[in-house]
Amino acid sequence: MTSYKDSGVNIEATDAMVEDISSYCKDTSRPGQMGNIGGFAGIFDLKKCGYTDPLLVTSTDGIGTKILLGIEIGMIDGLGYDLVGMCLNDIICHGADPLFFLDYYASSKIDKTSFLRIIKSIALACKENECLLIGGETAEMPGIYKPNDFDLAGFCVGAVERDKLLPNKNTMKEGDVLFGIASSGFHSNGYSLVRKVLKDNQCDLQAPPSFTSSAPTLASAVMEPTMLYYSIVKYLLQKQTIKGIAHITGGGLIGNVPRILPDHLGAEINHSQLPQTSMYTWFQDIAQMNNQDMHITFNCGVGMVLIVDRKQKDDFLNQITQGDKIFEIGHLVNSPHPNHCSIV
Question: Which DSSP letter does residue 142 get?
């Protein structure tokens, strides 16, 4: 007699891990939570969150080939932060508070140890950002994935009062100031290129970095988890001085800032005001990339860009706490070409 298990799929073992997952999910509790993990769907009570006229904001994403590098060098504990970050950072660009998150984990065969390490990091990232880990899904698909490989997808839902929805394009005008918030590294973009450059240059990932870094090894430097920006942005949004927020992911500054601008405005960013990040300088040198290619591939030290009215610049600067790495990088200009961003 042949069973499903004989094909490489062990439903019983996967179901048994639900109890382990439940303990992580309970740590992410927030207003609106209903029920427990294990049902057919997650249920969330929006009324309990206290909104008056809410809009729901949602985002889904993965973390690309950073997973392959993490598996290769045995560094997967930060991948949950990457997954949450790629989704949650998107919804806060619209001024939304994160409500809940779901994950999807697929592999050839689920390794319990690796799986729980990933889920734990997802739960920690959710907890730090007041977001409920409401559920998820797992799949064993031998033949689709190579042994020991896995893939992740994330889904985040948030809410914002209708009158606070961003971007506020109608109020944007020439001279508005662009502020950048520092990134923690490559975040989760460009890793197909990162992996190629590391391999082509025979970089020793276990050696200390060849650039200034607090990371003990090159591996830990290039695998630095994605920065999650909700704790910074939510306080800045309270004063309503921010007109727009751009999450700098694939496409870099040049590709992402224009996404929040009206057609008649462009962004002009001063290269000299961008952070001089030693890791990016090192990488650009060994990859032999020009500035343009760097700026359309990586965040180059800027994980988010905020648009602030020039007249409110001083008020905005007074809101920034000492630990926030926020800096002026440019301004808006009139432009005959939509979707325009130049770095000068």
Answer: B
Asked whether the beta carbons of 85 and 125 are under 8 A apart, the reply is yes
Nearest by Cα to 254 from 293, 281, 306, 227: 293
C-alpha distance from residue 100 to each of 88, 129, 130, 272, 283 (Å): 9, 10, 9, 39, 36
More confident residue, 42 or 79: 79
Burial profile 243-263: b = 16 or more Cβ within 10 angstroms, e = fewer: bbbbbbbbbbbbbbbbebbbe
Triad 28, 34, 40: Cα angle to 5°:
100
- CATH ID of 169-343, from 3.40.50.720, 3.30.70.1150, 3.20.20.140, 3.90.650.10: 3.90.650.10
Work out the number of other CB atoms within 10 angstroms of the CB of residue 55. 16
> Identity (one letter) of the amino acid at 325?
K
Rg (C-alpha) for the chain, rounded Å, is 21
Q: 3.30.1330.10, 3.30.70.100, 1.10.1200.120, 3.90.350.10: which CATH number matches 4-164? A: 3.30.1330.10
Establish whether the linkage from the previous residue to 167 is cis, with ω within 30° of 0.
yes
**How would you classify the pairing of strands 302-308 and 242-247?**
antiparallel
pLDDT in tens, 76-133: 999 999 999 999 999 999 999 999 999 999 999 888 889 999 999 999 999 999 999 9
Helices 191-200 + 278-287 axis angle, to 10:
60
- Dihedral angle, C-alpha 76, 112, 26, 151, nearest 10 °: 50
